[in-house]
Design a protein that fits this description.
Layout (H helix, E strand, L loop, with lengths): L2 H25 L3 H14 L3 H22 L7 E5 L4 E5 H15 L3 E11 L2 E11 L4 H20 L3 E12 L10
Parallel strand pairs: 4-5
Antiparallel strand pairs: 1-2, 3-4
Length: about 180
């Protein structure tokens, strides 16, 4: 939240407290307070100052309500420190590197998707895909994990904390290119 929004919320909060004290004073039979409020309001009836104060309160209230519904899109990134400064790499870029490594470096993987999350240990990579039916799932999965981790670390310069693989199904041999004898 920005400093301006905090200031507005603070001012609106103070005004709400003051308004609630006025309402409570009307509910509690304390004659001097009620008489003071009534005469104070009567003194300002028809004055431009009361209108300006009301307009300022209205603007602050509208700004406070507007800032509650405003959604700021923050693109998640991974920071990489260099000697010269900071480099931010989007998670979408890392996802592209993961898909590139899976398709180019591991044979037998089909219809792959990836999700990237950040963690304290580094980048967490979640991969889902299909594998050809005649391949060994544990062996190909481990090969995929290693290839993705090495590729992302070498190309993006970020630490890969974990690579999780979910083989959702096996792909039919029909999707494999036929070899001629």
């Amino acid at each position: 939240m920005k400093a301006l929004d905090r200031l507005i919320f603070f001012i609106v909060g103070i005004l709400l407290i003051m308004a609630s004290i006025v309402l409570i004073s009307f509910a509690v039979p304390i004659y001097p307070i009620m008489e003071y409020v009534r005469t104070s309001i009567q003194n300002y009836t028809g004055s431009i100052e009361l209108g300006v104060v009301g307009l300022i309160i209205l603007i602050l209230g509208l700004r406070a309500i507007w800032s509650c519904f405003k959604v700021e899109r923050v693109e998640e990134t991974v920071k990489h420190e260099t000697e010269i400064g900071e480099v931010k790499i989007s998670l979408q870029t890392i996802e592209s590197l993961v898909l590139q490594a899976a398709k180019n470096k591991v044979k037998g993987i089909k219809e792959i998707t990836a999700k990237i999350r950040t963690a304290e240990s580094g980048v967490l990579i979640l991969i889902k895909g299909k594998i050809l039916a005649d391949l060994e799932i544990p062996q190909v999965s481990e090969e995929l994990q290693t290839a993705v981790k090495e590729h992302v670390e070498s190309k993006a310069g970020v630490t890969v904390g974990e690579v999780k693989v979910l083989i959702e199904n096996v792909a039919s041999d029909a999707s494999r290119p036929s070899s001629t004898k």
